[in-house]
């Protein structure tokens, strides 16, 4: 498990968590765990949960997981009228606002009726051959 508070998220307002999923619904449980773990994290507005094959500190990885492993209706959790930072002027009421959890993990039976795909990765030998060929062609 890895936990990252990106600086773009103003310290604690956004968290990205990578985890080894153990059962259907596990990502949602992690979201609520983040919001209740430490007093400061009850003010975290956005929690993105990804599988442990995704680097939470690499935005390209995180965005890839969000766009390939999420259905917006199924995988977005909204919590309304919940404590929020008094200094967060985006909230409609001082001290109360909403939170959003995004489940960008691979789906298990019970979370989808479709067969879930397996990520395809180039092995190191193929990657090295392609890189060498690109060098020959002058491609960066």
Explain this structure to me?
By secondary structure, the protein is of the alpha/beta class. It has a single domain, classed as UbiD C-terminal domain-like, CATH 3.40.1670.10. 29% of the residues lie in helices and 23% in strands. The chain contains four helices and five strands. It has a five-stranded mixed β-sheet. α1 (26-37) links the parallel β2 and β3. The longest helix is centred in the last third of the chain and has 14 residues, at 124-137. The protein is globular and about 60 Å long. The protein starts with a strand and ends with a helix. One of its GO terms (molecular function) is 4-hydroxy-3-polyprenylbenzoate decarboxylase activity. Its EC number is 4.1.1.98. One of its GO terms (cellular component) is cytosol. It comes from wastewater metagenome. It holds the Pfam family UbiD_C.
CATH class equals: Alpha Beta
Name the CATH superfamily assignment. Answer: UbiD C-terminal domain-like
Gyration radius (Cα, Å) is: 18 Å
Please state the second-level CATH architecture: 3-Layer(aba) Sandwich
N-to-C span: 34 Å
Number of helices: 4
Looking at CATH, which topology would you report? UbiD C-terminal domain-like
- Give the overall average pLDDT: 92
Helix content: 25-40%
Q: For this entry, what is the oligomeric state of its chains?
A: single chain
Number of domains: 1
Class based on secondary structure composition and strand pairing: alpha/beta
- In terms of DSSP E residues, the strand content is 15-25%
Strand line-up across the major sheet: 1-2-3-5-4
Sheet with the most strands, sense and barrel status: 5 strands, mixed
Shape: globular
């Amino acid at each position: 498990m890895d936990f990252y508070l990106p600086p773009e998220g103003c310290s604690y307002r956004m968290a990205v968590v990578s985890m080894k999923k153990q059962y259907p619904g596990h990502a949602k449980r992690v979201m609520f765990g983040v919001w209740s773990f430490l007093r400061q994290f009850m003010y975290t507005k956005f929690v993105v949960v990804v599988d442990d094959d995704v680097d939470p500190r690499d935005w390209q990885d995180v965005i890839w997981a969000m766009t390939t492993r999420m259905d917006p209706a199924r995988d977005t959790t909204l919590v309304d009228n919940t404590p929020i930072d008094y200094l967060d002027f985006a909230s409609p009421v001082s001290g109360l606002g909403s939170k959003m959890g995004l489940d960008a993990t691979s789906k298990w039976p019970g979370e989808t009726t479709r067969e879930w795909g397996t990520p395809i990765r180039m092995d190191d030998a193929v990657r090295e051959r392609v890189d060498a060929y690109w060098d020959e062609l002058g491609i960066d």
